[in-house]
Design goal:
CATH superfamily: Alpha/Beta hydrolase fold, catalytic domain
Strand order of the largest sheet: 1-2-4-3-5-6-7-8
CATH class: Alpha Beta
Shape: globular
Keywords: Hydrolase
Domain AB hydrolase-1: 34-274
CATH topology: Rossmann fold
Oligomer: single chain
Structural class: alpha/beta
InterPro entries: AB_hydrolase_1, AB_hydrolase_fold, AB_hydrolase_sf, Epox_hydrolase-like
Order of helices and strands: EEEHEHEHEHHHHHEHEHH
Number of strands: 8
Number of helices: 11
GO molecular function, one term: hydrolase activity
Protein name: Alpha/beta hydrolase
Helix content: 25-40%
Length: 302
Amino acid sequence: MKPDWLDKKEYPFKSQYIELEAGRMHYIDEGEGPAIVMIHGTPSWSFMYRNLIKILRKNHRCIALDMIGFGLSDKPKDWSYKPRAHAINFVQLMEHLQLKDITLLVHDFGAPIGLAYAIRYPENVRGVVMLNSWTWSLSKHQTFTKASKYLVGPLGKFLHSKLNVSTNVLIHELFKDEDDLPEPIKKQYIKGLGEPEEPVRNLACARELVGASKWYEELWKERKKIQSIPTLILWGERDKLIKIEALQRWRKFFHECYVIPFEDGGHFLQEENAEEIAAYVSNFIKEEQKKQEVIDEQPINT
């Protein structure tokens, strides 16, 4: 049963669920073709990908989940909400769907969740599409450039600075630069976090995000396992939460990396530039398929 507050015209998808130890995790599975798996950030949910899915499902199979604690998934009070636990849930969803040759589409906190899967199962990931994201830790025991020291968990720091505000205030703060975003759309994000007046300190998005440095460090140490995966980076240059230095770090990391900057885009490109993003994603997948077909057609030397 979908909640009364859900705008079914904006989000006209059939709900699917997987039963996990933490509770029921909601996801949508729309369209046919090469699979694109979309992982949201925090505090958000699959609603953010609705406009991309409406376009891409014509030629692609689009899967978008709500992490436990977000959107239409259960919000248990006694679950840990640690990033590592979210990553385990994501693996279980992928095993349930038995997907191969996927393109991961990740955004902010969704990047470490998705890339943890790619590190563990690189043979299942054909490509990565990344929007403004990070996946490294601010550990005094590691050597980072001066600039990158200020990039770690920026959204987590922002959330912890807002612990005493309501979810309503938080969403308006996050989307304050999105001048054209209607209030009814903001309401969908607010409702997806639980009770609008609930203090942010009680929310999944603020509970465990910052205290994940050790896990981020573990991922970053294994990053070479995904370094050769073709990657498309779509980056909003007006992002006040994740600065441009993070993009520079990603650009240097991936061997095959295509970067599309959005000069007037902010942190939420999915809301601002859905049609452009969909076109770039579709073209990226087509080009990578062509490359793979050429490789497959080459004779094997014996």
